[in-house]
Amino acid sequence: MNYYTIHHHTRYRYEAAVSESTMEVRMQPRTDRQQRCLNFQLAVSPHAQVLTTDDCVQNVIHYFDIPRSHAELILRAQSLVMVQEGPPLPDALAGSEWDALNETAATERMWDWLAPSHYARPTSLLAAFSEEIGFGRDQDPLTAILQLNENVHDAFEYTPMSTAVDSPIDTALENRRGVCQDFTHVMTALLRQQGIPARYISGYVFQEPEKKKEQDLSSASHAWVEAFLPSVGWIGLDPTNNSRVEDKHVRIAIGRDYADVPPTRGVYKGNVKSELTVGVHISETEDEEIPTDLLDNGHWTPREHVEQLVSEEKQRADQQQQQQQ
Fold it and tell me: Where are the domains of the chain?
């Protein structure tokens, strides 16, 4: 079980003052069976009243409006989050798991995670890539998923700025390079084509300081895949780093692809261009490092209490999954 402090700063600068900005923000880590958001604060400059809601998959959304002239907009988000490892995976699954997946696909419950989406959809280049790496139903589903994670990692070069957030899937497939969003979109689309429900996860990943490289993802928002297998549940896989998602990944939002869960989405009034800069820092945190004011105000939950809460949350989630099956 790990604790992390996350600082996420975003700045929009405009060529000239704009008269109004309206924005949605998805930066608050989720609370679920593997992680718990213990504290979240969002500061906006110029000052605005920030409201909160959630969507149909319990992503937390903050939103605000600035109805006055301003030349820049600054967001400062700070999170304290606890993350624990998921349950161990079996070495392999029975071939009958494919039959269970077929039955799952026939229900409405997984429709959103099986249908093509804006950035994760079939193309001729995707079909050629699938044939190139031999992805199909020749192996049990778990083995096939893990092998796909490795194949996507090996086939693409992680290259910052090689694609944009709105680049179609074929840009990365043609050039064989991209960023975490591209790795995730390719893998998501391939999984869905084989009848495996898959969803896009936005978040952060922590890397040990001694392992950091210039292009490491610990300095920016990250993305990975979750695939569903009926006998196991949702499995997190990170094709960019060729790893399983465990206690170093912090989940923010769940979507069909990036279009559902951008960190910020908004509009402004003014015929000017904007410049965006983003900075993210994530660090490990111990109980004794928590600021005194958080402890005094009751915003921080001690480790032993969190472990009890997580255990109760896991029991409820297991009961719900059993009822659904």
Answer: 2-83+261-324, 97-245
pLDDT tens digits in sequence order for the chain, 325 residues long: 899 999 999 999 999 999 999 999 999 999 988 899 999 999 999 999 999 999 999 999 999 999 999 999 999 999 999 999 888 999 999 989 999 999 999 999 999 999 999 999 999 999 999 999 999 999 999 999 999 999 999 999 999 999 998 999 999 999 999 999 999 999 999 999 999 999 999 999 998 765 555 444 434 689 999 999 999 999 999 999 999 998 999 999 999 999 999 999 999 999 999 999 999 999 998 765 655 554 444 444 444 554 554 455 556 656 655 554 5
300 and 288 Cβ atoms separated by less than 8 Å: no
Residue 70 token pair = 């301003």
97-245 topology per CATH = C8orf32 fold (3.10.620)
- Say if CB 269 and CB 18 are below 8 A apart: yes
CATH of the domain spanning 2-83+261-324, picked from 2.102.10.10, 2.60.40.2250, 3.20.20.140, 3.40.50.300: 2.60.40.2250
Do residues 254 and 56 make contact, with C-beta atoms less than 8 angstroms apart?
no
> Can you give the pTM of this predicted structure?
0.86
Q: What distance in Å separates the CA atoms of residue 117 and residue 112, rounded to the nearest whole number?
A: 8
The one-character DSSP state at 298 is T
Residue 98, helix vs strand vs coil = helix
Asked whether the beta carbons of 235 and 97 are under 8 A apart, the reply is no
